[in-house]
């Protein structure tokens, strides 16, 4: 009997970070030198943060594996270790083949190089010959839909263009392992559907796919097994249904905890202070508004964006609204009152919650269950809407005969 070598073997994997507390940091280089001269034996106050804690698992070739867990559970850290973006503190990783990856927006491409140059650079870094890359080049460009901008430096790309090209490169360069983080949320719905189909085909062709996402319906449609992480530990490795059930249970617990600002995930550089969802009940055809206040931090450098997920009673994200799509970036040194207004597509009658995120290069604040509202079944249809109508949202439609 032939023994199949796992595509991925992870043994006792851990990742620790050392956090230096702000109050102990010298404000200038001169102050740092003077402090060392005066107190040569004094060490700054540090704290060890464990992002991954003794994680072990095997994944077989051709598997499509979802990675689920709350923000801060260790999902993205695990992908960074598997793709060698970061090194483990402890443990061992064995990969049978090359890894193509799409992690957070901003990684993987050189901003000064054009899209064309970055395609060849990525392929070369994966150990591919130029002839192999040329053979796939037209397919990559067609999938990404960025032909007009191929000779433009990628630093001038929108986040959506960047993700489309980055995914196309990762998916078409035929590495044995494909690792995708949840950056696909930046793309439009049509492109997301193309990506899911491409990943499904990759798994059917014998490639191993790892997919991190909060989109439960997408994980269920794509993956044949799942990992569930909580606080850096692997809680479950098995069926997608079991992982989804754990995710939903821990989400409810997280919603209760995150009312306390100090217990919320994120760096804490900025925090959401107050949320107002207005009327707790809304009709399916009405406009909905969510207001929230983000505090000021005079030491914050650069700009940030905000993102909102509307989540149904099953824990599935049915709407994702990112301020970058509206070209809205915010100044962290000023207090900001943010107003999100959305109308349609119509949500199914039922209860929903809103998750709010403040982000820059990483997550500054993650407020799951920041607000709740209920949708009442007032629909503009002439007939009766049947119970259990499929689909995440309702469309404005009508039938006629001609």
From TrEMBL:
The keyword Protease does not apply. Coiled coil: none annotated. GO terms for cellular component: membrane. It comes from the Bacteria. Residues 28-256 form the ABC transporter domain. Pfam families: ABC_tran. GO terms for molecular function: ABC-type transporter activity; ATP binding; ATP hydrolysis activity. SUPFAM superfamilies: P-loop containing nucleoside triphosphate hydrolases (SSF52540). The keyword Thylakoid does not apply. Keywords: ATP-binding, Nucleotide-binding, Transport. Belongs to the ABC transporter superfamily. This is ABC transporter ATP-binding protein.
């Amino acid at each position: 009997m032939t023994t199949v070598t796992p595509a991925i073997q992870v043994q006792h994997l851990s990742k620790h970070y050392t956090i230096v507390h702000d109050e102990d940091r010298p404000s200038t280089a001169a102050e740092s030198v003077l402090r060392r001269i005066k107190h040569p034996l004094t060490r700054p106050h540090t704290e060890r943060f464990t992002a991954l804690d003794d994680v072990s698992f095997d994944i077989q070739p051709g598997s499509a594996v979802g990675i689920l867990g709350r923000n801060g559970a260790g999902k993205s850290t695990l992908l960074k270790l598997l793709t060698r973006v970061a090194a483990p503190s402890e443990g061992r990783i064995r990969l049978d083949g090359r890894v193509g990856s799409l992690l957070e927006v901003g990684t993987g491409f050189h901003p000064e190089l054009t899209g064309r140059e970055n395609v060849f650079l990525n392929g070369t870094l994966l150990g591919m010959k130029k002839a192999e890359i040329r053979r796939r080049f037209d397919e990559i460009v067609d999938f990404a839909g960025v032909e007009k901008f191929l000779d433009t430096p990628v630093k001038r790309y929108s986040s959506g263009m960047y993700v489309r090209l980055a995914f196309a490169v990762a998916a078409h360069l035929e590495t044995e392992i494909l690792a995708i983080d949840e950056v696909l949320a930046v793309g439009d719905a049509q492109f997301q559907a193309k990506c899911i189909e491409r990943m499904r085909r990759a798994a059917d062709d014998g490639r191993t796919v790892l997919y991190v996402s909060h989109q439960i319906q997408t994980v269920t449609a794509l993956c044949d097994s799942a990992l569930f992480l909580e606080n850096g530990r692997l809680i479950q490795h098995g069926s997608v249904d079991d992982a989804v059930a754990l995710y939903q249970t821990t989400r409810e617990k997280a919603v209760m905890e995150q009312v306390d600002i100090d217990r919320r995930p994120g760096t804490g550089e900025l925090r959401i202070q107050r949320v107002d969802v207005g009327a707790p009940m809304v009709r399916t055809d009405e406009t909905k508004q969510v207001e929230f206040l983000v505090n000021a931090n005079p030491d914050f450098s650069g700009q940030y964006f905000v993102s909102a997920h509307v989540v149904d009673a099953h824990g599935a994200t049915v709407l994702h609204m990112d301020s970058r799509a509206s070209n809205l970036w915010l100044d962290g040194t000023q207090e900001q009152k943010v107003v999100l207004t959305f109308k349609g597509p119509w949500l199914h009658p039922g209860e929903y919650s809103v998750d709010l995120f403040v982000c820059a290069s990483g997550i500054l604040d993650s407020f799951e269950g920041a607000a709740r509202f209920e949708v009442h079944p007032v629909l503009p249809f002439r007939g009766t809407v049947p119970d259990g109508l499929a689909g995440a949202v309702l469309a404005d439609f009508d039938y006629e005969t001609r």
